[in-house]
């Protein structure tokens, strides 16, 4: 009876204490003081309950080494409660729900790749005659008449299909990204055509992890996915390929690094392949760097390189405030694969516009 009575007594004391504290908060006439009182009373517990368990790679390795068998160790994510709960989470955490599941739940529209509009994108070397080994050289009026300056835009979103699957708290996602090149400045023509559209639906899985890296870094997430990438055009302008990929997300303070490795997975070969040499130019992966200077300014870079053939690309991005939540966006690009139609054409471009959502959000 004593064993039962003691927990009940403790519960009664805790409940009475919280009730008394809540009553005290309610008596405060100042709005700011009353809100601070409630935050101090309830906010830390709310954050703790919302935390998500992650796969601890360091402890899993140590335990597996000690037992001689594969062992999985799940640890609670280390979240430090702050006056503003969002400050406790990083960009990677928000993008992939690493420390807690989003209150939006599954099947809700979420941020994915950056979403932007660049009214002015200048290309130093337009590709007037796109070429592919299996499709030959394309004789197309839209390509021939294209201007060096065009409008470039991208829309992107993802949604969580399943959360906390398996025993390791993995999440399953669907993502979609569409990039467009719009010849808005082709004056004198009856219409301003979209020169190219790239479509990239994908499905991928993320695994929250916990592991220490050199120089104070943290490994936060591992992932794998499958993406179909095509431009939806008919031959000879058709371009498409399918990839399987793996990636990792790492953080060093305000610096985020995401390496990704891919391999081509395509049933078409020979003459049925729109772009048989695409891996030569797109390589076997990319490396992304993202750095937040403060809440208003952020920069990023993406690098691709195929050491066997010497082809690659580098892209640099900068985000800055304009007014309110509106942010300016500058991009520079040099190399191959700026878009799918011109995957094997080397070009240099620079653009200015606005970013609607992206890696700089948090």
From TrEMBL:
Pfam families per the UniProt record, alphabetical: PLA1
Cofactor note: Binds 1 Ca(2+) ion per monomer. In the dimeric form the Ca(2+) is bound by different amino acids with binding of each Ca(2+) shared with ligands coming from each monomer. The Ca(2+) ion may have a role in catalysis.
Subcellular location(s) of the protein: Cell outer membrane
Annotated active site: 228, 230
Top-tier EC class: hydrolase
Bias-annotated ranges (Polar residues): 127-140
Cleaved signal peptide residues: 1-19
EC nos: 3.1.1.32, 3.1.1.4
GO biological process: lipid catabolic process
UniProt xrefs under SUPFAM superfamilies: Outer membrane phospholipase A (OMPLA)
A GO term from the CC aspect: cell outer membrane
Presence of keyword Membrane: yes
Keywords: Calcium, Cell outer membrane, Hydrolase, Lipid degradation, Lipid metabolism, Membrane, Metal-binding, Signal, Transmembrane, Transmembrane beta strand
Annotated spans, Disordered: 127-147
Coiled-coil ranges from the UniProt annotation: none
Membrane protein topology class: Multi-pass membrane protein
Catalyzed reactions: a 1,2-diacyl-sn-glycero-3-phosphocholine + H2O = a 2-acyl-sn-glycero-3-phosphocholine + a fatty acid + H(+); a 1,2-diacyl-sn-glycero-3-phosphocholine + H2O = a 1-acyl-sn-glycero-3-phosphocholine + a fatty acid + H(+)
Family the entry assigns: Belongs to the phospholipase A1 family.
Function: Hydrolysis of phosphatidylcholine with phospholipase A2 (EC 3.1.1.4) and phospholipase A1 (EC 3.1.1.32) activities.
Record protein name field: Phospholipase A1
Species per Swiss-Prot/TrEMBL record: Alysiella filiformis DSM 16848
